[in-house]
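Everyone, study these two lines:
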Amino acid sequence: MSAALRPGLVVGSHGRHLVVRTPDGARIRCHVRGKRNDAVVGDDVRWAAAGDEGVIERVEPRRNLLYRQDEWRSKSFAANLDAVLVLVAVEPVFSERLLARALVAAAHAGIPAWVALNKVDLPGAAAARERLAAYAAMGTELVELALKADPATAMARLAPRLHGRTTLVLGPSGSGKSTLINRMVPGAGAQVGEISRALSGGRHTTTTTTWYALGETPEAGALIDSPGFQQFGLAQVEPRQLAALMPDLAAHLGGCRFQDCTHRHEPGCTLRAAVERGQIDAARWRVYGELHDELSAPPRY
């Protein structure tokens, strides 16, 4: 490694501008060399000073990488994760399709994922539990929380699962994600302020993705927050891989008449037979069909 290159961790991003945290805790505004932005939050990088800013010269090898998707393209946004926490709530009602996308993306990247149901103190808790029953049955870890009504119990359930890990926290608006982060991360607002100042040179900037330290040492772990409930990019998933990434469907693989069965229309399909017997949840099967059609469609760009 060149003596001019320094180690750092990407802790914030906004467009092509990134914030790199140095080993001594300083935050440096950086950009990548060239037009393409290859560095994302969670990346270990090597950078060189350029005046008051820095230039990222190299991204170290990643353990994993996740993508988000808009109408036109997929874009990487978080790397080197130990876990994905999907936070949903009794109110507002969550989207099972987005939940499924998050779990499929995590499974494809080899990242353990779990689900927390917040606001279980509200009257609709039983209905929310019923909607998550299929996920519990297929082995997804589920944790119930009441972040505002019973914060002590919520923190006791969250802390051991988050300690020592870098966890991406996802959740739709109103799920309680900001409440969770503010309770788990002392000084979260200060961390955001430091990153925003580094990104904007004093002007207010809302970062796209932010890395929060859970303590003073790396061993304490970290949370990564990306606003909204990401429409996960699944372009990296081949249609034939999809069923194996959904544990409740994967349990019935291996007996189809045709080796290249898509499980959509072929005779002798063990998955469709399992649906007819009620062994695969109808809502989950509908999501499989929607995702398979999406992944099989010609690219739009």
